[in-house]
């Protein structure tokens, strides 16, 4: 599992050095994905307040056909529409088909990059293991998402 404290410090150092959110988002994905064998796919989707979709910014893992996801569609779209993180232990049991990157994905975690009610995007993590994600995973990725949101909010001003 990613060491959130160290990653958050690295992200803050990047902010202090003048890096913008694009660089921070890419660095976060490249740091999270290899940190745990359960993580088969890690990506970041961005959202604009006036947009009706989230769009894929960058990822590591199998290719995906889901570059844009309408709000309310799939786990990512539902998470943004409901402004709530989601952890799904078995994506095959979702009422609506989950928009996973590969057929062998069994579980998914979506953590919003947000500041208050402003949702800037999300971090999506997929696993080939059923029930792979714990509350600790969610909390760890949430710390990273909060640091990313700080930068994205600062750029909005």
Characterize the structure shown.
The protein is an alpha+beta fold. The protein has a single domain (4-156), classed as Beta-Lactamase (2-Layer Sandwich). It is built from 4 helices and 6 strands, in the order H-H-E-E-E-H-E-E-E-H. It has helices spanning 4-16, 21-32, 74-82, 135-156; strands at 41-47, 53-60, 68-70, 86-88, 107-115, 118-127. The protein has a 6-stranded antiparallel beta sheet. The longest helix has 22 residues, at 135-156. It is globular. The chain starts with a helix and ends with a helix.
SSE layout and pairing:
Elements: H1 4-16, H2 21-32, E1 41-47, E2 53-60, E3 68-70, H3 74-82, E4 86-88, E5 107-115, E6 118-127, H4 135-156
Antiparallel strand pairs: 1-2, 1-6, 2-3, 4-5, 5-6
**Within the CATH hierarchy, at the fold level, what is the topology?**
Beta-Lactamase
Radius of gyration: 14 Å
Q: Any idea how many domains?
A: 1
CATH architecture: 2-Layer Sandwich
Structural class: alpha+beta
Specify the overall morphology.
Answer: globular
Strand order of the largest sheet: 3-2-1-6-5-4
Number of helices: 4
Low-confidence stretches: none
Give the proportion of residues in helices: 25-40%
Briefly summarize what is shown:
By secondary structure, the chain is of the alpha+beta class. The chain is built from four helices and six strands, in the order ααβββαβββα.
Main attributes?
six-stranded antiparallel beta sheet, alpha+beta, 157 residues, Beta-Lactamase
């Amino acid at each position: 599992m990613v060491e959130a404290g160290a990653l958050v410090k690295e992200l803050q150092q990047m902010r202090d050095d003048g890096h913008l959110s694009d660089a921070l988002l890419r660095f976060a994905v490249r740091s999270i994905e290899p940190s745990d064998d359960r993580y088969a796919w890690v990506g970041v989707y961005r959202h604009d307040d006036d947009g009706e979709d989230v769009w894929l910014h960058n990822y590591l893992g199998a290719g995906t056909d889901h570059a844009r996801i309408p709000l309310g569609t799939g786990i990512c779209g539902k998470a943004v529409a409901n402004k709530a993180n989601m952890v799904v232990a078995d994506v095959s049991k979702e009422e609506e088909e989950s928009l996973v990157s590969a057929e062998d994905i069994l579980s998914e975690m979506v953590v919003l990059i947000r500041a208050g009610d402003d949702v800037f995007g999300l971090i999506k993590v997929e696993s080939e293991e059923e029930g792979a994600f714990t509350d600790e995973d969610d909390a760890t990725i949430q710390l990273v998402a909060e640091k990313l949101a700080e930068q994205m909010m600062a750029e909005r001003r």
